[in-house]
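USER: For my understanding, would you kindly supply a protein sequence with its structure tokens?

ASSISTANT:
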Amino acid sequence: MAGHYKTYHTRDFIRKTETGKLDLRRSIYAVRELAAAAGYHEDCNVVIDLREADTHWDFGHLITVALEFARYRDVF
């Protein structure tokens, strides 16, 4: 069975400050924008590519971004 896929990379939803730190506010906003876009494509599967994710950020901030995705789990 063929499906439609759109791949998002971490650079599509993780935002950094000028110093390279996670910009939590902008990242959460990007997740909300992705959720809105995914809602318009209910016939597609959303794939988030984390292979090149930077792991040097604060774990608590990364969990906060992950929880934001969980809020919109019905559209992803």
